[in-house]
Design goal:
The chain is 23% helix and 22% strand. The protein is an alpha+beta fold and 64 residues long. It is globular, with a radius of gyration of 10 Å.
Length: 64
């Protein structure tokens, strides 16, 4: 799995951070930052949930 984020689309809802805090964070403006672009298997379900919950669709997932 590869993750990309578009901080220009992000609205700062924070659902990604709540769902997968080891992979996503928010900057000082509340916008998404990516901590781990290629997460391990243990957090992939949480990352998929985060992508699905993203209100602005700023998270893109590419499955291996």
């Amino acid at each position: 799995m590869r993750i990309t984020v578009d901080s220009d689309r992000c609205v700062g809802a924070g659902q990604c951070v709540l769902s997968a805090p080891d992979v996503f964070d928010q900057d000082e403006d509340g916008l998404v930052t990516l901590l781990t672009p290629a997460p391990g298997a243990a957090v992939r379900d949480a990352v998929r949930l985060a992508g699905g919950l993203c209100a602005s669709r700023a998270i893109t997932l590419a499955e291996d």
